[in-house]
């Protein structure tokens, strides 16, 4: 039987505790997701497209993300809720196919991110032993991290918040120390920065911004937990902007450090462990092991925070009756079920797929969903929440330009992933259409 209504009205059952996440805890979760993906999983792919200019890609990504955050901040300030992106889309488009499918695409992009970061964790963990090419060990280590993330999340919000806060402080301090030490030893005239600024054209640089945006998209973790943040009408917006600011400074430090130590070819070759590779020339084995430790800390906190956000979002979609749900005989409320489903899907992806390519799939899903958010707010809600049309349209245009450039590059270099992305999005929209029609058809027991 469906327990949705009971879960919705009994906060403890659904797992929502208003005021259970402090401002610092929310910032820690937001930066945890961003830094876990942005630096350790995507630096090599960004450098491969942008060449020696790759640090500028992070700046461009931060600017586009700041524009995008405007819609989310305005909506979260007006209606803070757990599962915030689903709420934004539902208010913009109503409880129909567009809102449900776009919300599910956003959740899938987050699950892909979890798997990508888990595989990165596994690569760093195995790199000191020279076993990072062993597919079985990579899968086992990645799956172990995802199971650990489940256990932390299952223990409650305060455990997630405290763990994220401690881990974020360690990793941001460690990353800053790594970057400053590496730059001090290498200087600014070596590595990638000594190379001619080759470029296959502006299209490649713009396409690289898609990965940079993916590195910042962890700010959506905050909107998905808005109803549980202390004083959400004020603190959700502050949390998003503080998290983006912390991450752009961190990303730039790391990008300069990696670029000063390694050539572009070396960065691309070591894309799964580029920070550890960059530490070795100037800092030796001590620097190498220190960077590995920081990477393990960063990716662990990233997966924990992402699992938290996705489970909240899927819970909201279920409570809004926008996606199908089955208990499969499990006890507990919907939130506990969605937590299990989240880690099962992420674990499956981490075990069976090469996620360097699936990162592209995540970028496609995220950019399309982000555009639907901006258009929905602009078309239906901007007057109600006091949002400026010019900012919304600029965010929409920026996403569109980057999406077109990214698709153009991928059609040239990896056309299959474009087909997979299009087919995946089409399947989600058709599936949601069928589900919602069946749910609302006569004789199915719904009012």
Automatic annotation (TrEMBL):
Compartment list: Membrane
Gene Ontology molecular function: any one: L-amino acid transmembrane transporter activity
Pfam families given in the database record: AA_permease_2
This protein's GO CC annotations: membrane
The keyword Transmembrane is assigned to this record: yes
Entry keyword set: Membrane, Transmembrane, Transmembrane helix
Topology in membrane: Multi-pass membrane protein
Transmembrane segments: 21-47, 53-73, 93-113, 133-152, 172-193, 205-224, 236-268, 288-311, 332-352, 358-378, 390-411, 417-436
Chief place of localization: membrane
InterPro entries, per the entry: AA/rel_permease1, AminoAcid_Transporter
PANTHER family to which the protein is assigned, alphabetical: AMINO ACID TRANSPORTER, SOBREMESA, ISOFORM B
Full protein name: Amino acid permease
